[in-house]
Amino acid sequence: GAVVSQHPSRVICKSGTSVKIECRSLDFQATTMFWYRQFPKQSLMLMATSNEGSKATYEQGVEKDKFLINHASLTLSTLTVTSAHPEDSSFYICSARDLGTGHQDTQYFGPGTRLTVL
Amino acid sequence: SQQGEEDPQALSIQEGENATMNCSYKTSINNLQWYRQNSGRGLVHLILIRSNEREKHSGRLRVTLDTSKKSSSLLITASRAADTASYFCATDPPGGNKLVFGAGTILRVKS
């Protein structure tokens, strides 16, 4: 199946700093990628939809100036958590749809990035 | 809430037993998908069932869908310790481009 990678897998940063997380589709092109966050023992909450070449669409309650999303190519989307605070500590997961014939309905998920803000 | 309901929230069974997890949702859908997540890891796609399908099988997995009741179930037969994980259903609404996840069921299979 299609593979999505994330980097880094784990990051610890000081409060007030910015952290960039990369999401790559390794063997397919993805015009649309999705960013989720997941708190311990909870489900995934969609933060935003990342569209290649255009602005991201943010879910209600998600601050677009705090969570900057850039989707510069068909295989790469980045999420930057700006001025991170301890409450931003979470598991961030990206996903992508494979737009190849017969696979449009399936989202492939990255392995996640564990962010800890001290 | 964007999430549907899943039950049970947690399930503990012995190896070899069957595990059944249920999912209910609120809106019409194109399809419903089940995912598995090992602790601290990403999600693995298990199976997709379309709105015009009622049952689907994949190995030891059996998924049913009842659109009139807006519910689905995932059955894992002959469970193994390696099946221990969290299981999520996710619905794909018409016209949307995004999945809506249920709250998840934590499955523990004891050997």
Percent of sequence in beta strands of chain B? over 45%
The low-confidence parts of chain A are none
H-E string of chain A:
EEEEEEEEEEE
Radius of gyration of chain A: 14 Å
Number of helical elements of chain A: 0
Task: Describe the main β-sheet of chain A briefly.
Answer: 7 strands, mixed
Radius of gyration of chain B: 13 Å
Give the overall shape of chain B: globular
Q: Which chain pair has the greatest contact?
A: A-B, 26 and 24 residues
> Averaging pLDDT over every residue of chain B, what do you get?
91
Main sheet properties of chain B: 6 strands, mixed
For the secondary structure, the number of strands of chain A is: 11
Number of strands of chain B: 11
Number of helices of chain B: 0
Secondary structure category of chain B = mainly beta
Task: Provide structural commentary.
The complex is a heterodimer of chains A (118) and B (111). Chain A has strands at residues 4-7, 10-13, 19-25, 32-38, 44-51, 57-58, 67-73, 76-81, 90-97, 107-109, 113-117. In chain A, strands 2, 4, 5, 6, 9, 10 and 11 form a seven-stranded mixed sheet that branches. A four-stranded antiparallel sheet of chain A has the order 1-3-8-7, with no helix packed on it. Chain A is mainly β. Chain A starts with a strand and ends with a strand. In chain A, 0% of the residues lie in helices and 52% in strands. The model of chain A has no long low-confidence stretch (mean pLDDT 90). In chain A, a hairpin with a 2-residue loop joins strand 7 and strand 8 (76-81). With 111 residues, chain B is an all-beta fold. In chain B, the strands form two sheets. In chain B, strands 2, 4, 5, 9, 10 and 11 form a six-stranded mixed sheet that branches. The mean pLDDT of chain B is 91. Chain A binds chain B through residues 1, 4, 6, 32, 34, 41-46, 49, 59, 91, 93, 95, 97, 105-112, 114, and chain B through 2-3, 30-31, 33, 35, 40-45, 48, 88, 92, 97-104, 106.
